[in-house]
Design brief:
The chain has 144 residues and is α+β, with helices and mostly antiparallel strands. It is built from 3 helices and 8 strands. The strands form 2 sheets. Strands 1-2-3-5-4 form a 5-stranded antiparallel beta sheet, covered by helices on one side. It has a 3-stranded antiparallel beta sheet with strand order 6-7-8, covered by helices on one side.
Length: 144
Amino acid sequence: MATHGRVTERDPWTSVAEAAVCAVLGAGGHAPCGVTVRDVHVAPHLRWASFDHTPSGDVLWAAQLDGSAPAGSQAVSTDLGDVGVWWHPNDPALPSLRDAVTEGGLTAVAAALASEIDPQVVHVVSLQPLEHAVVRVGRPGHAV
């Protein structure tokens, strides 16, 4: 069974993911720590949850890939195994995502494409953590 989108009830994975995020934020794994669940996805080999961190405005992700923390994430030991946590846009499996959504990275992309890109016009069209991202960057009337 896969769940995706806003959750209306707590399940074990969401609670464990929230505790892992709270541990990384320095709350010792104790909720509440200023995070709100955004989205949850549970599938046989991959499960993830995204959280809004109200005090900072950041988005954090927690995930397990084949029962382990994804390589490159900050691993937190939980009752359901290691869970990886990271701040958006630092997806450990999508290293170019950070370049695609930050001004410094966009300058390099624009130079490589010989295109004028307005780094203020960035829209993440689709994001499946650890799998793929589609980002639209541009200016009015012109997008890359």
